[in-house]
Design goal:
- The structure is a single chain.
- The protein is mainly α and about 100 residues long.
- The protein has one domain.
- Helix content is about 75%, strand content about 0%.
- The longest helix has 29 residues.
- It is elongated.
- The chain starts with a helix and ends in a 9-residue tail after the last helix.
- The relative contact order is 0.17.
Length: about 100
């Protein structure tokens, strides 16, 4: 995990993982707490965290896309689309990001 932090692609993979986990927590814990138990504390906490991770993922995707010279029509749009689809960041990490070779 430490080796991932040293590269831009590695950081993007970590942010994608955290963004996916935050969405799962939001959907599976915080939203049911809000609507079934009338307790909005979870959404008040996780909403901004997930939003910040979402924005970090988008900005880092664009940065890595420029650095790696990705063709927008072939790669970048797929990675950007992944953060709009629930669990998409996990799939894109497996199918694209984990296969990129990058020197630290």
């Amino acid at each position: 995990m430490i080796a991932l932090v040293k590269t831009n692609v590695g950081r993007l993979r970590i942010i994608g993982f955290l963004e996916g986990i935050s969405l799962l927590i939001l959907i599976m814990i915080a939203v049911p707490m809000k609507y079934y138990f009338n307790n909005p504390a979870g959404t008040k906490l996780m909403g901004p965290i997930h939003g910040a991770l979402f924005l970090l993922f988008v900005f880092n995707t664009l940065s890595v896309g420029v650095e790696q010279k990705w063709n927008f029509k072939q790669t970048t749009w797929k990675v950007l689309l992944a953060c709009l689809i629930p669990l998409g960041t996990f799939y894109i990490d497996y199918s694209i990001l984990s296969k990129i070779k990058e020197n630290a």
